[in-house]
């Protein structure tokens, strides 16, 4: 593999980002919705971004650290989606 875009995990993270953008476009037009939308988009975009940045480093521990950060961002995204479910923004 010569490029991070060849990584299946990065491709899946990008697919998730696209899905979240589609969901966010359906949120009501309120201040709270804008705040939540911003947060969930930041966390989910961080997943693929950290995979890409870490791949560029390609050094064991340094790459590993970026993958841990990516996993943390994925968990944050899950938390935001739980909040969205509780607010009935998504089902």
Q: Helicity, in percent?
A: over 70%
Q: What is the distance, rounded to the nearest whole angstrom, between the alpha carbons of the first and last residues?
A: 38 Å
Structure class: mainly alpha
Q: What's the order of the H and E elements?
A: HHH
Number of domains: 1
The CATH architecture would be Up-down Bundle
Strand content: under 5%
The best one-word shape is: elongated
CATH topology: the name is: de novo design (two linked rop proteins)
What average pLDDT do the residues reach?
95
Taking the sheet with the most strands, its summary is:
none
Give a count of the beta strands, DSSP E runs of length 2 or more.
0
Oligomer: single chain
The CATH homologous superfamily corresponds to 23S rRNA-intervening sequence
Radius of gyration: 14 Å
Number of helices: 3
Q: Could you list some keywords that capture this structure?
A:
single chain; 91 residues; mainly alpha; de novo design (two linked rop proteins)
Please describe what this structure looks like:
The chain is mainly alpha-helical. The chain is built from 3 helices and no strands. The protein has one domain (4-86): de novo design (two linked rop proteins) (Up-down Bundle). The protein has helices at 8-24, 31-57, 60-86. 78% of the residues lie in helices and 0% in strands.
């Amino acid at each position: 593999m010569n490029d991070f875009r060849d990584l299946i995990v990065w491709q899946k993270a990008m697919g998730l980002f696209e899905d979240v953008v589609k969901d966010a476009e359906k949120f009501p037009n309120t201040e709270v919705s804008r705040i939540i939308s911003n947060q969930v988009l930041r966390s989910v975009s961080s997943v693929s971004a950290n995979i890409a940045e870490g791949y560029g480093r390609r050094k064991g521990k340094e790459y590993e650290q970026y993958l841990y950060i990516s996993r943390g961002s994925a968990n944050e995204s899950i938390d935001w989606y739980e909040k969205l479910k509780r607010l009935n923004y998504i089902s």
